[in-house]
## 1
Amino acid sequence: MLVFRFVVFGVVAAAAIWISVAYGVGRAVDNVIFRESVDKASQWGQFMASRIPDIEDLAESGMPTEKQRATIEDIRNIGDVFRFKLFTADGRLSLISDDVSTGRYMGTADVMDLEPMQVAATGAPIVDVFDGTNKPNRPDLYAEAYIPLFDGNGQVVAIVEVYVDQTATAAYFRESFQTFGLMLMLFCGLIFAVPCSAYYLQRTLTERSRKDAEFLSRFDPLTGLLNRREFSMQAKRHIENNDLSVACYLDLDHFKAINDTHGHSIGDAFLANVADVLRENCRKEDLIARFGGDEFVIGFQNLSIEDATHRVRSIVQMCKKQIDIEDASITGSVSVGLAEINAEDGLDVILKNADTALYHAKTSGRNNFAVYGTEMGEELKQRYALESRIRHATENSEFEIYFQPLVSSKDQQIIGHEALLRLLDDNDNFIPPSVFIPVAEDLGLIEEIGRWTIQTSIQKVAEAESDKMLAINLSPIQFKSGELVNTVCTVLKDTGFPAHQLELEITESLLLEDSMSVEMQIDCLRDMGVRIAMDDFGTGFSSLSYLWKYGFDRLKIDRSFVAALDGNSERSREIIESVVMLGARLNMKITAEGVETAEQSKFLSDLGCDTLQGFFYGKPSPFRDEFLETAVQIPKQGKTG
Ligand code: C2E
Ligand code: CA
Ligand code: CA
């Protein structure tokens, strides 16, 4: 719009300048031609008078002598003069140059012409300029100038009307003036253009920053999705109109790890990719927003919860696909909570419900979605209480470590202990580690808790100067920061506990990551002399390739196989047998977990498991020095504490 106004103004201004210049040039040329004509005609008249001394006689008679005729022939076409008429001093026409060539002289006329009379009276020339384009024998532009001729006393002796061809002169001056006019126009244009451009530039910049500010106030700059404020405004309007039917809260799983591992620019690209997935799975009337960080919200309009769930399922699947950003291949995942909207609920309640459902999806394994139900409120409360308990226990070292004996199947002697974490709830009941450890992992506290466990358990056993082994469980997350090797090394050095007495238990989920870094850390630990055990063998993928690749020191057969023996499960027996054989082949020791009865103990010993662990030999219990030394009293039957 602004540009259009500038252009119109520029065109009008240019036209006005051009008209003024054209008019000015016309006037200037007329003036110059007038002056030029007077000068040329006067000079020519003087010249004629000098060449024809008896001009007065000639004017009176109108009959040139031969000599005068020859002179006239000579001078009549000098310069731009192409014709002349000679008048007597009182203004009567006596001779026309055309007649000199034909020789048909008319003689002096009797009547007096007005212009020569006037010239004779005033002594001043009279000039008229004519357009000769349509006249025969006339140039395109010419002047007729009446010039008085004087004698030595200053008396007018004759008048000569000189015809001067001014076509070339006018063209020359017109061209010059036009060039000048054009330059002037350009100059004016420039003077006009500079402030206009500056004004335009400033307006454009102001306009752009206004638009930027408006964009930022409504949209998320990274993804181009609505921001929280804009979403809230639009969502409230739609809730009032009963248009909004389902709200979804989305959160990327372990996005911090992507950022930490690959850097923020790749993290940003990943977020932008997620935004694209959301756009792809929503319709244009749906509201999609980024609430900040890795949180997104969708408001579906007039869509059933079933259809919304269908779209969300597709979002979860698409986000799980591996994407290549720069040199990195990234596989992320997203968890989603959906909540159906009741018009009487305000936006805050709706979002809270969707968030509760998201929490549910996160706690039940991530990379999935959950639809809000009223029962979730209670679960959420319990979860918050647990989180707060874990945080408090971490800050105040309120965890405990219990030790469970590992027994040699050969002589029933304790060969070591497994350290197991314990946490009491507010009512002094134990919270199972299978419950609090995943939550601690979610809270990002497991590394700190794990470090404490390594330090505390090694320290206790080292202080007892026991020569028995100590097994410690590791969460896969403890491998993420790359600090694990350093922690273990420092604690061993500080406590003097021999590395070969330490066994670290890992699970297959760690190896699924298949990252170089995990492999290197395991190698480093083994190089130090620390042994590595594969825990819960048989419950995960139990891929043989891992066993070949890592060459573990021990396999721990999950207690579910041992428990299954009670039902005389042939299958379970076969599996245990095969694992024992595999262990023998790959030079790995085999521990059977969950041994609860004498029968199980005997059976597993007979099958070839070299180490046994379970309530039959002892429940996990707090640390006691003598505990490390005592040989196990094998109970007659059943479980013991
Ligand atoms: P796990 O590594 O398989 O530990 C053995 C679990 O089996 C222990 O449960 C132990 O009490 C239980 N158990 C031992 N013998 C018997 C038995 O005869 N019968 C039955 N029913 N259970 C038996 P707990 O202490 O509840 O630990 C559960 C899991 O929590 C552990 O399984 C381990 O995966 C994890 N965990 C425990 N402490 C730590 C820790 O310090 N760090 C990490 N990352 N995980 C830990
Ligand atoms: Ca274990
Ligand atoms: Ca286990």
Note: The pocket of C2E (ligand 1) is lined by residues 404, 420-421, 432-434, 437, 453, 473-475, 505, 535-536, 559, 593-596, 613-615, 620 (CB under 6 Å).
## 2
Amino acid sequence: MISLRKTRLLNFTQLYRIGQPYKTGAVVLPVDEINFTPSAAIEGMTLTTLDSGIALTISLSPQDRVYGLGQTVGPLNKRGKKYRLYTTDDPVHTPDKENLYGSHPFVMIGSKSPYGLSIDYPAEICLDIGFTDHNVIEITIPSYDADIYLFRAQGHTLTFKDIVKEFLLLTGAPYVPPKWAFGYQQSRWSYPDARSIAQLAERFRKEDIPCDAIYMDIDYMDNFKVFTVDYNKFPDFAAFTGKLKQDGFRLIPIIDPGVKIQDGYDVYEEGKHKGFFCTTKDGSLFQAAVWPGLTHLPDFVNPDARRWWGSLCKRFLDMGIEGFWLDMNEPSIFYTPEAMAAVFDLVSEMRNNPEIPKRCLQDMLNNLSNHRSYFHSLHHRTPSGARISNDKLHNLYGTLMAEAVADAFMENMPGRRYFLLSRSSSAGLARTAAIWTGDNMSWWEHMLSNIRMLMSLNMTGIFYNGADIGGFGCDVSPELMLRWMQLGVFCPLCRNHSAFGTRRQEPWAFDAQTLNCLRDTIKLRYALIPCSYSEFMRCAADLTPFIRPVMFDFDCPFDVEDQFMYGDSIMAAPIHQPNATGRYVMLPQSSWLLCQALTHDNWAVSALPPGVHYIECPLNTTAFFIKENSIAILSEPMSYVGQREIETLRAVAFVTQTARFTYYEDDGLTYDYKKGVYCTLRIEITNTNGQYYIK
Ligand code: MIG
């Protein structure tokens, strides 16, 4: 018999505690100090004890939608698929995949009166959401210890937005990046040295393409040794960082967790000496092969190891770095020495025994990366000193790494906002960092994935996120690049990144016409920053998803998964299909102003009534909508955020009665806004019989 207790929290949360759950840190409320009362059942679901854990069964009505889960492949409405929340480095995001880099066990279920469910558990959770049986959700957890949060109001109807807000009250307010993070960002695996980065920066200014950040992928390091800079490539890194910052560019180096095993390498020596690396069950150091060759993985579960990692980050902060991207933190393991030895054994055996099918070797090689057995044998030390297998708290690794780095920023740049992207994430990451969605491909299908993940990630509190624009793997066509950049106008993180060996993706890597259109598109993004930033900051304070399904705001006759609200005034409807010169859109409830932007200040606008419409959108046009009685605010685009003071704001409004917008501005760099240091400008436009009044 498992122990089940319950309590009430916040406005409409019920916490069901099964056994003695591991303290994941996902929840910011002090739930351990609460008095629980015994419970016989979890309201609205069946709890079953299995041989190796528990199962929760929930029935679905035909019209129920299921939203959430943060970063997964597949539809926005999660119904009809199986998911496995176990963070993994899987670079091929095909529809069959059940897990990616993040784990966000939070779903909202329903249609007219939805309720929410969040599971606080640090390792594998399997969800069969109407896959085996269309009308049943079955969730299995391989443990007898977990916290189940139910968000369900008694006596009144909740909206999806209410539930997200309650979830964020529970897990913490979303991470807010510095304002420059709303600019365009350029990346590539890799810009290897100071010279190539300087040329890149110069080219942006020469081409008159705004840009705020340049990424440094793994090749900046000396032999992939984390926290080193190859000084042959960067003779004076601090001076280089400073010079770029003067020109309006932030440099963002990548940080991988694996520490190269090499005598004399200080990070390795110190980590080993202080016992900060993960071990095997018997306490010997665990070896994982990643980019540097054989490495040890830092034990981020240990708070002292986290502080140590933070102190290493300081080396970069002292050289002017204000942002990092954290890669490989699922954690990713290419192979272990033991697994490789087994490959060699098989190869020798095959030499002697031609009967062994070649497929055996093929299978073995295919299963080499991130084999589940590695995470069983990888061990951490909990704060109480006990050894625990990574498999039991697997999903926390990336989030704990991000926390270590965030703490270093907060300690060393007190009061200043930092920029932090993590690839892996779990509940709780949303308050310390942002994510990019990993290794997508230059496929049209992945634009649609990008759109859906924007919304699902916003539901879990990761408001600031984005995919590699243009696609990471494979070669991009100019058309796909351009359409994706048009989507990028409405992605909080607007970063063009591509893999080693693929076609170049910088804006000038294509023909002249594509270059011109990309420039216009990026400038449109910059012109909209006053609007985007005002809305983002408001949503972050209100705990309302910045990007959300149209169904969250309106009654829709049917669901649309490829349009989204971007704040309150704007609805994006990106083109995500090849050879399209337009698309169908669904305009819910009110009339909408169709904006067809050629450049930031050359738009055709027309009002459309509610319903389904086909809209024209040639390749050189970014199309989006302004809601009836709403305002969008624009400024002249700059070469980078904060280049000049904003002197003139332009309003594009669609007013049949009264429209309001609150323009928001702060220093963009500190947390002083939390102390009230910001200014707002309330803009109101009234239409009285065709006469417009502005105040
Ligand atoms: O094994 O650092 O998702 O953005 O360019 C690949 C090289 C490692 C994966 C990241 C990608 C990055 C790449 N990394």
Note: The pocket of MIG is lined by residues 189, 217-218, 254, 327, 423, 438-439, 472, 497 (CB under 6 Å).
